[in-house]
Design goal:
Blueprint lengths: L1 H17 L16 E3 L5 E4 L12 H14 L14 H14 L3 E5 L2 H8 L9 E5 L4 H8 L4 E5 L4 H10 L6 E6 L1 E2 L4 E2 L2 H11 L2 E5 L14 H4 L8 E5 L10 E5 L1 H10 L1 H4 L6 H16 L2 H19 L11 E5 L6 H14 L2 E2 L1 E3 L10 E5 L6 H17 L4
Parallel strand pairs: 2-13, 4-5, 4-6, 6-9, 9-10
Antiparallel strand pairs: 1-2, 3-11, 7-8, 10-11, 12-15, 14-15
The structure holds pyridoxal-5'-phosphate.
Length: 399
């Protein structure tokens, strides 16, 4: 019976290739980090990981993880409510609550699961789920799994958000869901305005701080700290898979009753395996470290400022902001999509690994290279990347 579907899948794959949307995976043969090896033998500098604090391959974490695996073993082979909850799971949940100044926290296998499981237990068809147009795919999937009425406002458009809030006042509950940081531009949600509107119209606010927890804000509590709204946000979801070691795992922190009901009803929590003890043990130590010192996020902030400043001074068109996601824009050029791809390839030849994004990943005419800065980058790495950008930029008359 495979014949027919096989043919159709082949056609679909062909179409993806023709549309230039086929995703090739580059194969790394070393630990994740600043300097990585590719399977063609090249050593390159990595400027496209979510490894914001540089913890992913760090020797210090390897030591901690070894201790964790020795003491608690490799896996749990159970969901949380059968026999998959260890003391360290509870300790990590408490630690995250303390770090984010929330009443309680629940762990998930990934933030994708957290977002997939957060709405459905809380909202039904009598409620409104109000979402920023550019929210992460997992928030979109979460809303699809929930019976609430769906409303979308244009990206960061607060007038539209207010319109929706006005028009839905008859509904039982309203929940506004937003990314804290939007990953293509590195821009931050207008959380000050969002909480103001939420309070005015009696709505809840959920923030997905995956691209912020651990490093945005003076002490790394995320956009909720940066925008000074920690105590006015009801639900925070985030990932352990980016700045916080980069292994795997997600969580939701927030109001006590909300977390309690999620433990009873949230399907990805109830019906998926417990987070591996080695991750939980290590993540606990990461939160400890981040609670004691801001040195990593401070270094990341400095690196980001330096890179943004020097790239601007070199004549590149970069999206302004404070986030270590630095989009180098090709909007001024007719052939922006092609340019973003050639540019990334040339940079790889110079030993700099970055990715070029073009339509439909980003809107037409806004192709870019998205650079991601890490605390593990040293000045010499940043300089090498900037020099390479300048060299390739001159060659293609981008600057
Ligand atoms: C990366 C990301 C996720 C997914 O996190 P995982 O833990 O990798 O599943 C969810 N939301 C946002 C905003 C993200 O950037």
């Amino acid at each position: 019976m495979y014949g027919k579907i096989k043919e159709n899948l082949q056609k679909e794959i062909q179409k993806i290739r023709e549309d230039n949307l086929y995703k090739e995976e580059r194969i790394i043969t070393s630990k994740q980090g600043v300097e990585i090896s590719l399977n063609d033998g090249r050593r390159v500098l990595n400027f496209c990981a979510n490894n914001y604090l540089g913890l992913a391959g760090s020797e210090q974490l390897i030591k901690i993880a070894k201790k964790g695996i020795e003491k608690y073993g490799y896996g749990l082979s159970s969901v949380r409510f059968i026999c998959g909850t260890m003391d360290i799971h509870k300790k990590l949940e408490d630690k995250i609550s303390e770090f984010l100044q929330k009443e309680d926290t629940i762990l998930y296998a990934a933030c994708f699961d957290a977002n997939g499981g957060v709405f459905e237990p809380l909202l039904n068809e009598n409620d409104a789920l109000i979402s920023d147009r550019l929210n992460h795919a997992s928030i979109i999937d979460g809303t699809r799994l929930c019976k609430a009425q769906r409303f979308v406002y244009e990206h960061s458009n607060m007038e539209q958000l207010e319109e929706v809030l006005k028009n839905t006042q008859k509904l039982r509950y309203r929940l506004i869901a937003t990314d804290g940081v939007f990953s293509m531009d590195g821009d931050i949600a207008k959380l000050d305005k969002i909480v103001e509107l939420a309070e005015k119209y009696d709505a809840l606010v959920m923030v997905d701080d995956s691209h912020a927890t651990g490093f945005i804000g003076k002490t790394g509590r995320g956009t909720i700290e940066y925008m000074n709204v920690i105590d006015r946000i009801d639900i925070v979801t985030s990932t352990l898979g980016k700045a916080l070691g980069g292994a795997m795992g997600g969580f939701i922190s927030g109001r006590k009753e909300i977390i309690e009901i999620l433990r009873q009803r949230s399907r990805p929590y109830l019906f998926s395996n417990s987070l591996s003890p080695v991750i939980v043990y290590t993540a606990y130590e990461i939160f400890n470290m981040l609670s004691e010192t801001t040195s990593l996020r401070d270094k990341l902030e400095e690196n980001t400022k330096y890179f943004r400043k020097r790239m601007s001074e070199s004549g590149f068109d970069i999206k302004p902001g404070i986030h270590p996601i630095v989009p180098i824009m090709f909007s001024k050029f007719e052939n922006d999509a092609q340019l973003s791809q050639i540019f990334a390839k040339e940079l790889l030849n110079e030993g700099i690994y970055v990715i070029g994004f073009f339509y439909p990943v980003v809107p037409k005419g806004t192709s870019r290279i998205r650079v991601q800065i890490s605390a593990a980058h040293e000045k010499k790495h940043l300089d090498k990347a900037i020099d390479a950008f300048v060299k390739v930029g001159k060659k293609y008359k981008v600057i």
